[in-house]
Amino acid sequence: MSFRELRNISEILRSLGYNRLISMESFRTPNFDLVADILNWLVKRFDPNSNIPFQIGTEQERVTFLKFVAQTMYDKARIKLNMKKLYSADGYAVKELLKISSLLYNSMRKNQAEEGDRMEIEFSLASKISDLKATRQTATEITSIGASVFDLLGSEVELREARAKCVARPLDNEDIEANLRNTIRQMNDNIESTRYKLEHLGADEANLKSKIDKKKSDLERNLNRYKSLQGVRPAFMDEYDRIEIELQKQYRLYLEKFKNLEYLENELEQYNRSEQEKFEESQKALKKLRAKDGLEGGRGRRRRDDDDDEISDDPEEDEDELADDDIADEGDDLSGSEAELSPSDGEGVLDDDDDPSDNDNNF
């Protein structure tokens, strides 16, 4: 026990808010009630849900209380407490109390510092992204380590038996000496190889230096040759320039002919389209004329059928009327043919200068 430890425990408990005053003389003499109260308060402060039987009337109850406290702190914070020193309840128990109280005090100070820094520091996006990457990497590492630990724990049953056999087997001095000799021999070999490398280090360095000098001289020679070749004009460059000029002329001629060809093809396509439209119009007109002639012929036949129905029952009178009709029809046909053959109207006469192909086109 020291004065500094007593001062630290009193200041830390006062900072944590312990409800009783702790003086420098509190631990001069054994005081188990005070130590038990401090332990109970620290455990409640660390884990409010912990259920520790706070009964210290007898020695067995005190031992049980200390066991519960030690087991709880080991499970929650991995803090090992010496129950003998705590049971003595004197200055030696202060060191064990400082283990718990220092952890709480440091966490409180860190929390206050983080709250103060959070109000002052402005977080940047870059730091957040880096933290995110680090978190992802850590999560990946945790997953892989957990898988490897799981595999190792799966083989723990077999390894436990092998380990127990090895531990239970008596040690053989001859085997131990042989293993030590092998290890010593391997270390001596490594030392000899390292010494050999150190001795030949100067030769290797000189060899590398000569290689570097040779490469530098080759580089300088190649650079000089490159500069000399840059100033020399090749013999085929004149012919290359002439062919390039001729190629440009041929290309311009090709473009001109290509444009003319495209234009002529476009004109031919338009001409064929117009001729096709004219041909379709003439076909439509011809179909209309044929339909009109067929309609007039049908009307004439229906008219003749009606006249035949109205013929009287006297055969002689019918024959005389039919004869008269035939004579009239023949006279009409003759007059019509004379009218067609007469050149007075100028129709139906083909001149010598007319071309039959023109008539076909007009038709």
UniProtKB/TrEMBL annotation:
Subcellular location: Cell projection, Cilium
Region named Disordered: 289-363
InterPro entries per the UniProt record, alphabetical: Clusterin-associated_protein-1
Compositionally biased tracts (Acidic residues): 306-335, 348-363
Biased composition (Basic and acidic residues): 291-305
Gene Ontology cellular component annotations, sorted alphabetically: cilium; intraciliary transport particle B; microtubule organizing center
Pfam family, one: Cluap1
Protein's GO biological process: cilium assembly
Keywords, ordered alphabetically: Cell projection, Cilium, Cilium biogenesis/degradation, Coiled coil
Family: Belongs to the CLUAP1 family.
Protein known as: Clusterin-associated protein 1
Lineage: Eukaryota, Amoebozoa, Evosea, Variosea, Cavosteliida
